[in-house]
Amino acid sequence: MSTKIIITGSKGRMGQALIACAKNFSTLRVVAQIDRDDDLAAVISQGDVVIDFSFHEATPGVVELCAKNKKAIVIGTTGFSVEEKLAIVNRQSAIPIVLATNYSTGVNTLFWLTRKAAEILGPDFDLEVVEMHHRLKKDAPSGTATTLLEILGDVRKLQLAEALRHGRKGIVGERTRGEIGIHAIRGGDVVGDHTVIFANAGERVELTHKASSRDTFANGALRAAQWLVQQKPGLYDMQDVLGLK
Ligand code: NAD
How confident is the model at residue 244 (pLDDT cuts 50, 70, 90)? Predict the structure, then answer.
């Protein structure tokens, strides 16, 4: 029996990629496509899992409706405020939720490598993250860059609110040891590039991932949906789906 999928944000770039890629999964069937102005409440009973790649303000309402109807949800949307994220994670006792800033296998490998490199290289290396996305992206820095920064902050035991330097301008003084630079570049049709730089006197390590197709995120999210229908209520990420924990 196939798993029935409802896509929210269906007319967007990711929504369209999900609809196209779902055709290659024999065990999945898209039963409803919901965008702004459509009524999710009217169709939610038809699905097993909702896949949401919409807008940060919309997702908490989608999660609420899923919790009310006991439907699992895979969330790809990024750019949540602290309150929005809290509203989402608070529903983990009611339904299974996968929340991931990036669904590509390559980026989840980058997450793993970033943690390892930060642990091996130690506190003498300066940390900088650079990301580039297409000109239409609405949030910055990207959700993926935010996850990379959280990993670096976790290994170095740094409070990100104090450690982050969003770009630099003017007479900012010498770089302090405790800061992590983050730089968001926007332009053209770039699907998503992320580089983590570890720089010390005399040497530099750079870890880079470049996505050239949205299908990599779509296929990962569809794989997560397939996995999620068999899970208990709880909060999961793509590392859980890939069995990397
Ligand atoms: P997009 O702007 O092309 O599409 C978003 C769609 O959501 C639009 O069609 C819009 O009309 C719709 N929408 C807005 N409010 C809605 C609502 N209330 N209900 C239903 N639909 C609504 O954006 P995109 O490039 O497809 O990206 C969507 C989100 O996914 C962004 O937050 C982006 O950062 C994120 N993203 C995540 C990953 C990942 O792997 N986690 C990958 C790519 C993009």
Answer: confident
CATH of region 3-99+214-242, choose from 3.30.565.10, 1.20.1250.20, 3.30.2170.10, 3.40.50.720: 3.40.50.720
- Best of 13, 19, 39, 55 for a ligand 1 pocket test (most atoms within 8 Å of beta carbon): 55
Angle between helices 82-89 and 59-69 (to 10 degrees): 10
- CA–centroid distance, residue 203 to ligand 1 (Å): 39
What CATH architecture does domain 105-211 belong to? 2-Layer Sandwich (3.30)
In the chain, CATH 3.40.50.720 covers: 3-99+214-242
Give residue 147's Cα distance to chain centre.
8
pLDDT at site 245: 75
Instruction: Please list the active-site residues.
Output: 133, 137
How confident is the model over 64-86, as a mean pLDDT?
Answer: 97
CA of 134 to the centre of ligand 1 (A): 14
Ligand 1 centroid, distance to 124 Cα (angstroms): 39
**40 CB contacts (<8 Å, ≥6 apart)?**
6, 8, 34, 50, 62, 65
Answer whether 105's CB lies under 8 Å from 216's CB.
Answer: yes
Residue-wise pLDDT for 85-107, tens only, equals 999 999 999 999 999 999 999 99
